[in-house]
Write a structure and sequence with these properties.
With 281 residues, this protein is an alpha+beta fold. The chain is built from ten helices and nine strands.
Length: 281
């Protein structure tokens, strides 16, 4: 009969399907398996407890590095170990805090999810994000879904090694921060591009990357902004932060005219990086 696809059996009794039906059968198995795995990953993982609190407030601006570390210690973090930028005199307190914030999520992603991501989730009202005690309301494209997605992704992730601050990478980041803030633009282009900027200050091996976070109330807010990655459907900022290949980090901040709510941060990452020797040495 035209259009009819019948199953065939082999001599062993095994069912053998003609190609069109076989393809449909394989796709059906794939879709079914994906749904089952997705459902199980949410079913067997702990639920989101919005009551689990922290000593740290989401929008807390103006914390110096020691204050930030003290609040993290009160939350049960080994802040002295994670605060790898504490002696980096080429970074200010906000920049040191952003290095520390990176190390939090890489050191214990599940703890980070339960303490801080849940707090962010609780501030969503539809697609509006309402900071506590702060007047501006952030209008998101995706609402709380990326934050919920992040929560479960962090519970599944094993974490990565701590990031170590690099003066050369920080100088490269500062160069781009000045460039985009003076011109009032966004993006990674300019001055020859990311690679050219980084190579003016040293040599790198294997892998480099760059994140930019605009108009943040604090360094802690900046890390959450990049991890949630609203409107960035490939979650590229999140992937960079969670990439276990990276060892070195450079951070710089500046004030962007289009984002007056706080500092704009440029962050450079590298697997291996060596600064050029100082000519004065």
């Amino acid at each position: 009969m035209a259009g009819f696809i019948s199953p065939k059996y082999t001599l062993s009794g095994e069912l053998r399907l003609k190609r069109p039906l076989k393809v449909l059968f394989q796709y059906g198995l794939l879709i079914t398996s994906t749904i089952v795995l997705f459902s199980c990953s949410y079913f067997f993982l702990p639920g989101i407890d919005l009551k689990e609190g922290s000593k740290l407030r989401v929008g807390d601006p103006g914390l110096d590095n020691m204050e930030y570390a003290a609040l993290l210690s009160a939350d049960g973090w080994p802040a002295d170990t994670l605060n790898t930028a504490v002696s980096a005199d080429f970074l200010d307190d906000d920049e040191k805090n952003l290095v520390l914030a990176h190390n939090l999520v890489r050191y214990d992603p599940a703890k980070f999810a339960r303490l801080y991501v849940t707090e962010y989730i609780s501030y969503f009202k539809g697609k509006e994000f309402h900071y506590p005690d702060i007047e501006p309301i952030l209008l998101t494209m995706e609402g709380k879904e990326p934050a919920v997605e992040l929560f479960y992704e962090l519970l599944r992730w094993e974490g990565a090694g701590l990031l170590v601050p690099s003066e050369g990478l920080s100088e490269a980041a500062a160069s781009h921060a000045r460039y985009i803030c003076e011109l009032g633009i966004r993006g990674h282009g300019g001055q020859g591009g990311m690679r050219a900027r980084i190579e003016r200050y040293g040599t790198w091996e294997r892998k480099i990357a760059e994140n930019i976070s605009y108009g943040n109330f604090s360094a802690h807010d900046a890390i959450m902004y990049m991890l949630i990655d609203d409107q960035v459907f490939e979650r590229s900022h999140r992937k960079i932060i969670m990439d276990p290949d990276f060892v070195y980090i450079g951070v710089a901040k500046d004030l962007h005219p289009r984002y007056p709510t706080g500092y704009t941060y440029v962050i450079n990452y590298a697997r291996m990086f060596r600064e050029y020797p100082d000519d004065n040495e």
